[in-house]
Amino acid sequence: MMNEVQAAQQDVIEEFGLFEDWMDRYQYLIDLGRRLPEFPEELRTEENRIRGCQSQVWFVAEKKDGRLEFRAISDAAIVSGLIALLLRLYNGRSPQDILDTPPDFVTALQLESHLSPTRSNGLSSMLKAIRGFATEALRAACLAGRQLPLSTHLLELRDRGAANARRTSWQLAGGKTHGSLPSLGRLGLRPCARYRAGQG
After folding, report:
1. What's the predicted TM-score (pTM) here?
2. Among the CATH numbers 3.40.50.10540, 3.90.1010.10, 3.40.50.2000, 3.30.420.10, which is that of 4-142?
């Protein structure tokens, strides 16, 4: 069974498949961007700005009831449309579903081929930010449950299905390496169940 992000991604792919001409797809993206909700001026800060985008993009996330709610805005029409597309896919989803779902829509819609290099880089930066928000949300949940959050490197190993990740050094929130998995019991900590190597 598909998770919520996968289902939304499939809907988007099918929806864009109705447009045979890419000019129509561009116009559809622009129309989507025009419908973005208002973004508070006080949130348009340097801290909330996405690096890697040629246009100005602000992105914020908030966790509510185990799900991530995103708000974003841009000063460019096409990028605003891409934001609307991303919100449709990821807004209100669980961090786990976000991390478990590769952004296959980028290839399926041939976005990298039809977007300018700067817009393509901006899309990549926004996707990276969304996955970063999801990773941090799961780490916070781990800490709240007295469980051990994994390093970003281990998350990447897990995403690649690395069976030997269990032998990699594990890290505490402060970033200091405290040895391999067997030593964690003496620290009174344990890895998050959903992030044990080879599981998920």
Report:
1. 0.73
2. 3.90.1010.10
